[in-house]
């Protein structure tokens, strides 16, 4: 089997070691004898939506988002939307998550988003939302905890057509007010959690790998269990840091 992975703007959108998510996915595939084929699409580059089953967009500072937002809409929106409609996995973190929505409003300036999900982000007047965070997530397999770290000035509000990824147990989440974190629709996940996210939440990495392979091969494979002692320790530590 092969996991066909596409990193969107890996040079521009990579903050707080979000690239670690990619390393982690690669390792978990390779340890199981699943080939991990990595491709990247940067500024101006187009891609074939049928050629990749897992799209990834990391976080970035406002200036990084400024550099990619319009370019992404112009050169990649149609391919991303077509892949997502056809059940490709997409994971977007923080700055990347914000760009999945309609727009990111920074004062007078409006950065266009992909419009894949019904959400809006506005740069608030108040302080940045920073700290350790734990959320409760149910992706159809019962409630699980996802733990990580958030640091964002933007406040995200979901529209009536969008479902959150989870409920905040401790931390700020989408906007520090409504108790929601992230967005989830089918195989699309957007979240504010760094850490990086996946090494601290190995079950989520496997959920995503399973979905991407299912898109390619038609059935969800039984993923061989791995020795997750280190991953469990990383999760417990991130969770403790948030809930303490
Ligand atoms: N620049 C965005 C914000 O501050 C996203 C930050 C990030 O990706 N950590 O809201």
Commentary on this structure:
This protein is α/β, with parallel strands linked by helices and 244 residues long. It has 5 helices and 14 strands. The strands form 3 sheets. A 6-stranded mixed beta sheet has the order 2-1-3-4-14-13, sandwiched between helices.
Give the structure's gist in a few sentences.
The protein is α/β, with parallel strands linked by helices and 244 residues long. Helix content is 29%, strand content 31%.
Q: How much of the polypeptide forms β-strand, as a percent range?
A: 25-35%
Which molecules other than protein and nucleic acid are bound?
A: glutamine
If you consult CATH, what is the topology? Rossmann fold
Q: Low-confidence segments, ≥5 residues, pLDDT <50?
A: none
Q: What is the molecular shape?
A: globular
Q: What is the gyration radius calculated from CA atoms?
A: 17 Å
Tags for this model:
Rossmann fold; 244 residues; 5 helices; binds glutamine; alpha/beta
């Amino acid at each position: 089997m092969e996991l066909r992975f596409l990193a969107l703007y890996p040079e521009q959108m990579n903050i707080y070691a979000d690239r670690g998510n990619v390393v982690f996915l690669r390792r978990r595939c390779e340890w199981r004898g699943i080939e991990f084929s990595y491709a990247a699409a940067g500024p101006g580059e187009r891609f074939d939506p049928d050629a990749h089953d897992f799209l990834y967009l990391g976080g970035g500072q406002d200036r990084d988002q400024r550099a990619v937002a319009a370019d992404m809409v112009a050169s990649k929106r149609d391919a991303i939307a077509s892949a997502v409609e056809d059940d490709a996995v997409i994971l977007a973190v923080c700055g990347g998550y914000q760009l999945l929505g309609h727009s990111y409003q920074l004062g007078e300036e409006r950065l266009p988003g992909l419009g894949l999900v019904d959400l809006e982000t506005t740069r608030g007047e108040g302080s940045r939302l920073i700290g350790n965070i734990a959320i409760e997530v149910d992706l159809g397999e019962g409630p699980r905890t996802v733990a990580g770290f958030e640091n964002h000035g933007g406040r995200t509000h979901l529209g009536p057509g969008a479902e959150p990824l989870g409920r905040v147990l401790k931390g700020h989440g989408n906007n520090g007010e409504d108790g929601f974190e992230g967005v989830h629709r089918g195989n699309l996940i957007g979240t504010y959690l760094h850490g990086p996210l996946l090494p601290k939440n190995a079950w989520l990495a496997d959920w995503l790998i399973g979905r991407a392979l299912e898109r390619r091969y038609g059935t969800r494979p039984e993923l061989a269990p791995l020795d997750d002692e280190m991953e469990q320790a990383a999760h417990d530590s991130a969770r403790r840091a948030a809930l303490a």
